[in-house]
Amino acid sequence: MTFDIYKGGRLPPYPEATHPRVYLDDFFDRDSLMRWFTQAQATGELTVDWRGNIPTDGWGMDANGPDPTAPEVIRDTGVGDCGPAGMDHWQMAINAGQGREWASWGSPFVVSLYETLGGYKLGDPSTDNGTNLQDNLGFWRKNAINGIQLTGFGAIRPGTWDRATRVATMRMFGPLYTGVNLQNAQETQFPGPWLWVPGGSIAGGHCIDQIAELTGMDEGEEASWGAAVRANMAFMFDSAEEMWALLTAESVEANGDNPYGFDMAQLNEAIGSLTGETNPLGLRRIL
Length: 287
Description:
Elements: H1 30-43, E1 48-49, H2 82-97, H3 107-118, H4 133-142, E2 152-156, H5 163-173, E3 176-183, H6 184-189, E4 202-213, E5 220-224, E6 227-231, H7 233-239, E7 240-247, H8 249-254, H9 264-275
Antiparallel strand pairs: 1-4, 2-7, 3-4, 3-7, 4-5, 5-6
Helix pairs in contact: 2-3
C-alpha cells in the first residue's frame, strides 16, 4: 500500500554492521535513572514538552503533502521529504521549547534540502525516493544548516525505548527524530489521535518528531504533516523502527551534570571512536 493524500519518504535504517551507531541507552547509569524515574512518577513530573507556543496546526507541511507554499510543480501532490521536514520541525521545537523565537525553514528551503540529501530533482518523480535518517544526521553533523550545527547524534536501542529512557533523553537533548512505519489508518485518523490498528495495512516509512510526552501513556505529541498529532504509546511502540537524539554544543554543555547518571564523557569517547575525532562533543574537559 502507499499513502493516499500525504507522503512518507523515510528509507529503512541501514544494518548496523555497515553503518555503526552509538546507543544512548548505554551511557545512563540505570540506578540513577530509575531513582529519578520513581521520584518523577511520584510527583507527577514525568513529562517533557518541546512544543512551546507553536500552534497545533503551525508546524508547516514542508511539501510532505499538498502544500500551497511549496514550489508550484509539486504544490498539489507533495514529495517524500519527511526526513528533511523532520529536521525542520526539530529545530522549530528546540527554539520554541526554550522560549526563543522560532520559524519554519519553509517549504522551498526544505525541498532544496531534499535535493541535497536525497538527490531529488524538482518536478522529476523518478527522483522522489526519500532519505535515510542516519544519512541526514550525518550530513547535518558535518554541515551547519541555517546556523544550527550538530556536534553528534545517537540512537535509542530498538525495543528498549522505555518511558524513563525516552523522557530523560528528550529532556537532555530535545525532540526525538523518529522513523516509523505508518499504516493507511493513520492518514484517516490524521490529525489524530494516532492509534495503531492490529493487522492494518502499512502505507510506508515516515519520519516524525516526538515533541512532547505528557502525563498519561496516551499523551504523546508528534510533529507530522504540518501539525502536532496526539498519539498513544502503543502506536509508538508498534510503528517506530528508529529513534534518534540530536546533540548540539548547547545541549551537551547544559547536561554535563544531570540527575539521570548520563555519562557525557563516555559518549564523547564513543562518538570519537566512530568518527576518528578527538573530543567531538567539544567537552571543556575530557575525563
